[in-house]
């Protein structure tokens, strides 16, 4: 009876996670959205009686803290979270190179793409709702690979890539720190979902959300403890750091 938490579940890749996870009646799903008062009809149309649509603005520490408390009260004392999918993300000033970084956009990207995932895990740990074998998937991108960036000719979305490379480093730290904190089988990975047709990926992207998320779930659900700290692509191969 696994329990999942997915941030940014109202559209794009996050919504597709919900669509695939509700297929299994065993799954309890905490489907997180930035603002509950917005229209979430697509998400509500998918939800079943084990899907809890809850608010979590990953750019706001108070919102993340409130969500962690709500997770505790929603799940009760005996149900623990088995999977945390830090999916919510932003790509601001995508056309800017490293010589044109927009300070406010870079700081907002770090806040949402790095601090949000970090604090979500930290506050859920504090609430005692993470399973001892929790799997944490931080949504990265192949564009955050230092090796690929150094080896390749093209550079794009500089601020976004900087924030996702920082998310990768966060993951490397969390992989050790969660186990030190007592979650002996905790396994933290980074995921490159491929180039996916969503608002962020655009219409020219290579993959449907179905194909990307189908692959990601296979990787996530098949993780072993020795996969802790690895950087996977949706198809199961590894991305060079
Ligand atoms: N699509 C791709 O090709 C691709 C490639 C590599 C990596 N990724 C990563 O995959 C993840 C999902 O991407 P996507 O393509 O599905 O993007 P998307 O279509 O732009 O959807 C982004 C999701 O993140 C949510 N979000 C953004 N900021 C938030 C905040 N402060 N609090 C709560 N939710 C927030 C959005 O909610 P709102 O509706 O409220 O804005 C939305 O649900 C991102 O982390 C992205 O960086 C995507």
From TrEMBL:
Q: Which SUPFAM superfamilies match?
A: NAD(P)-binding Rossmann-fold domains (SSF51735)
A family per Pfam: adh_short
User: InterPro entries in the record, alphabetically?
Assistant: NAD(P)-bd_dom_sf, Sc_DH/Rdtase_CS, SDR_enzymes, SDR_fam
Q: Which CDD domains match?
A: carb_red_sniffer_like_SDR_c (cd05325)
Q: Which UniProt keywords apply?
A: NADP
Superkingdom of this protein's organism: Eukaryota
- Select a single GO molecular function from the record's annotations and give it: oxidoreductase activity, acting on the CH-OH group of donors, NAD or NADP as acceptor
What protein does this entry describe? Uncharacterized protein
């Amino acid at each position: 009876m696994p329990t999942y938490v997915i941030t940014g579940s109202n559209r794009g890749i996050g919504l597709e996670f919900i669509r695939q996870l509700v297929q299994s009646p065993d799954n309890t799903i905490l489907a997180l959205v930035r603002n509950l008062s917005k229209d979430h009809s697509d998400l509500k149309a998918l939800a079943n009686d084990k899907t809890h649509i809850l608010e979590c603005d990953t750019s706001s520490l108070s919102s993340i803290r409130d969500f962690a408390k709500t997770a505790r009260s929603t799940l009760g004392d005996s149900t623990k979270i088995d999977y945390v999918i830090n999916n919510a993300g932003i790509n601001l000033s995508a056309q800017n190179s490293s010589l044109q970084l927009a300070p406010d956009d870079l700081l907002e990207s770090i806040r949402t793409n790095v601090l949000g995932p970090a604090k979500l895990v930290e506050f859920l740990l504090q609430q005692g709702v993470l399973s001892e074998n929790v799997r944490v998937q931080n949504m990265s991108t192949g564009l955050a690979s230092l090796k690929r960036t150094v080896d390749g000719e093209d550079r794009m979305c500089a601020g976004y890539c900087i924030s996702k490379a920082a998310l990768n480093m966060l993951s490397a730290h969390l992989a050790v720190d969660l186990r030190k904190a007592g979650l002996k089988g905790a396994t933290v990975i980074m995921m490159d979902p491929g180039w996916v047709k969503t608002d962020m990926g655009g219409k020219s992207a290579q993959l449907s959300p179905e194909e990307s998320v189908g692959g990601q779930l296979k990787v996530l659900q098949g993780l072993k403890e020795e996969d802790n700290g690895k950087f996977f692509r949706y198809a199961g191969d590894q991305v060079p750091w």
